[in-house]
Structure formats: structure tokens, C-alpha cells
Amino acid sequence: MGTKCLNCPLRNRPIFAPMSDGEVAFMQKFKTGELVVEGGTTLMMEGSNSPQLYTPLEGMGLRYKTLDSGERQVINFVLPGDFIGLQAGVMNEMQHSVESTTPMRLCVFDRRALWQLFKDHPERAFDLTWIAAVEEHFLGESLAILGHMSGIERIARAFVRLHDRGAALGLISAARMPLPYRQQDLADALGLSLVHTNKTLTRLRQQGVATWRDGSLNILDYDRLCQIAQLPTDRTPMTRPLI
Amino acid sequence: MGTKCLNCPLRNRPIFAPMSDGEVAFMQKFKTGELVVEGGTTLMMEGSNSPQLYTPLEGMGLRYKTLDSGERQVINFVLPGDFIGLQAGVMNEMQHSVESTTPMRLCVFDRRALWQLFKDHPERAFDLTWIAAVEEHFLGESLAILGHMSGIERIARAFVRLHDRGAALGLISAARMPLPYRQQDLADALGLSLVHTNKTLTRLRQQGVATWRDGSLNILDYDRLCQIAQLPTDRTPMTRPLI
DNA sequence: CGATCGCTTGAGCTATCTCAACCGGCGTGG
DNA sequence: CCACGCCGGTTGAGATAGCTCAAGCGATCG
Predict the structure, then answer these.
(1) Of B96, B123, B188, which has the smallest distance from its Cβ to A140's Cβ?
(2) Which residue in B has a C-alpha nearest to residue A139's C-alpha?
(3) What is the pTM (predicted TM-score) of this model?
(4) Measured distance CA(B123)–CA(A220) in Å, rounded
(5) Quick one: closest CA in B to A186, which residue?
(6) Please, what are the domains in chain A?
(7) What pairing do the DSSP bridges indicate for beta strands B210-213 and B104-110?
(8) Strand C nucleotides, any atom under 7 Å to a protein CB
(9) Which residues contact B155 (CB under 8 A, 6 or more apart)?
């Protein structure tokens, strides 16, 4: 039941295919500017109605919900190329917040352009629905992870997924990629306590499977990690949560 | 942080608004037939590429993923008016399975109609993206539930959500609605073991909060249930997971 | 220098899991 | 019409993953 590469059937474009020149030109039309922010900036607020959509060009962030109890559920990690704010563009309101973890440079689009896009470029509109459906797929997977996997399995899977995404973005060098989050962030993403996350990370480190220190993830034994994560080693490269 | 009513901004249509005559006529154009199935029928198979889209008119079902370990994660419960198969319509493949629990009557659409729709009716295409975004919202919420809530809280929330949806569909009479699932189904939806689910249900019953027997959910103390579920009592009616 | 932040480690507690047995209803076949 | 098997639900008992509380440590910063 290995994960397949996800292609948009309309134009047969895999998630991570770089944009063609035509596409770039097309995007330029909608681009209204670039935004540079510090780490720790809130880009989108739950309940807000932002007039902008973003795509990060550099830097990393977090997508999360704040619960009534004050706890935080991290929905996923935001990497370059993701799409931020489609939810607000299409519903009237964001259902989660987005925050930069490191300094970020973002490409800014105007929200009104979205409707224009639907009218004038049905194939792009189709892409957007596709993006949303892909996103749904990953959320479904996360749901299954939280529902059925143990702490070490969850962390292993998170690492493999992040490694996949990092690889697709060319962020990996010598089995090492930047992962500038706190242990608390990972804990909130996986529904684990900070303490337990820490102890489990220690275990992975002692077993020589993977280390994550000083914002840098180092995968020492990829096969073993995949095995723990209950993922096949021969996955087709892919995976990017979006919107 | 109460949940808001979700309106499609384009036509300001709330999730559950009945369709206008024009809309009904419009849908008729795409309808290719009706399908009647037994309980226990698999309507969509994970990894399959169904040429049809469905909307249940009667009956209830389940959306689920089968994990490599053989376990099952129920993604959500399928009630009349839901949309089945958009994911396959837009990606090439379903990422989860759908199964009827009771006998069902379904409205059938042709998948190719979807692309026609995007070309000819941008506002409907926008609706579809909106639907996907709404779906994403609910999955995000489920994620938060599994991540952070105790067994009794999860069950209480599931009951409240199901009650909301049942109410919107007119399925409730005397605080009682049909809920023809097995305890195992609920357990798989909430990431709990069957035994623990059973014991927690017993607890809710003993406390006079809610009973669920013989396929019928009876909410005895709505306020208390909402309190346990950490939801405000004055939610605006809404909620339907779709696609 | 004190304060803060992220990480680490220890100790005890409990929610939840697994294993196992049993029960009643229902359909089937002899 | 009875015997049997199966399915869903119920209950008990023991094991444990993961939680909370609490303390300490090194780095960074004003």
C-alpha cells in the first residue's frame, strides 16, 4: 500500500514539478509583491479574513489551531512552495493560524485575483480544487497517524515525511536538512506531550536512527526509520501539504 | 471561540441550505441515474478510480482508510447530502474507501461532467473548491480532537457533531436520531479501542448524558454533553463533512 | 548578573490498551 | 424445532504508554 505520486490529471503535473515559463509568467500577473518577515510573526490569524494569499519563497513556518483549552494543535509545517490563505480566499475566514518560525520571504497575491482566476482560467481553478483535495489526503493521513500510531511511530513518520519534502525542495545535504522547530512544535503536531516527545527523540538518537539537534535533522538509518514509520522505503518522491 | 456558520462567500449559501429550483434543475443535467445498495456495500475503494460521483439521498455510510497494519481509520460518517468521490474526480484516485452501513439510495453523477462544470460554470467550480476547503476545516478539527482530547471528550464531541448534522437533516425526533453504526466504527473514528469506547459509553449512559443503543442515539442532557465536548451550546447549526 | 528559553531527566500516576471470558439475539441447517 | 455458530455488546483484570509535576542545566540576552 505504498504511497503513490500524486499527479494532477488535467495537466499531469506532479505536486513538485517546477513551474514552466508560461506558468511563471502567469503567476507574475497575480503577484502583487513580496513580503519579508521575522521569525515568530503571525501571518494569518484564525478567524481573520486576510485579503492576501502567500507562497513562501524562503524560510519555514507552522500552521496551527488554538483550542478552547488554550492548547495548540499544529496542523502541519509550512515549507517553501506551500500555499497559504486559500481557505480564507474561498471561505471567508481562516480556520487556523499561520506563523513564521524562521525569517521568511513570501510571494504575495491578491485575494480578488482568485475569483478572476476561476472565471478566466478554468484549468487553474481545477488545479486549486486539486490542491485542496491533496491537502485533504494528507490531513486524512495525519488523522490515521494520530489515531493509531505510538509515539515513536508518529515521530518516525513525521521525520520521513519532512525528509521527503526537504528532498523535493533540495534542502538535503549529506542526509541532513534544516528543521528549525522546537520539540514543543513537533509534540503539538503529533499530539504528544513535550516530555514524552523528548524521551522518544532520545531513544531514536541512542538507537542511531536519527538525530535532531540545533535545528538540523540528521537521518542516520533511513531504512530503519521507514520501518518504524510503517512506510515502504521505495516511496515515489512527493508530499506537500498546501493551502 | 464558538464555531461559526460556514457560508460560501460567492453566493452566500450556508452549507445546509436546500437547493433552489434552478439549482435542482442544474443538478438534473448532470445526474445520470440513481443507485440503490445494500448495507455493507463498498461504494469507493481506496486506490480505485471511480468514474462516478455520488450523493446519498437516503441511508448512512462510512469513509475510512485501511492502514498497513490492517487497522482501520474511520475518516468520517457519510450522511445524506454528502458528496462522495470528488477526490477521485479531481485527483485520479481515491485516497480512502467509502462503504454503506445501512441500505442507501444514491444520486449518481458522471465524473466527466466535473470538468465541464469547471469550464462552463466557474461559480460552481468555486463552490467545489469551497466544499473542499470546508472539508479541510473539519479534518483539521478532527485532528485537534484526536491530538488533545480524552476518550469521553472525543465521544461527547462526536455525539454533538452527529446531532448537529442530524438536526440539519431533520433526522431528529424527541432528542433521538438514528445512528446505525457499531461501537467499533465509533472507536475507529476516534482512535480508541473498542473496549474503552464501550466502557466510556456506559459511563455516559450511567451519568444520564446520552444513550446509544440499537442504532439510536438519545441525547438526554445536551448542555452537559456540550460541556464535556468543550463546545459552546449556542453553536450556529451547520457541519457537514463532504467530498 | 539575573531572567528567560529550550532541552533533559526522574518519579509517580492513570487513562487506555490487550487479553479473555461471557451473554443475548439471530440466522442457518439438520 | 432445536442446536450451533457468529456477531455485537458487556465486563473483569493486569500491563503499559504516555501524562503531569518537578527540578536542573546550558545558552542567550538585556
Answers:
(1) B96
(2) B139
(3) 0.81
(4) 50
(5) B147
(6) 5-124 (2.60.120.10), 142-229 (1.10.10.10)
(7) unpaired
(8) 6-11, 15-20
(9) B186, B190, B192, B197, B200, B201, B204
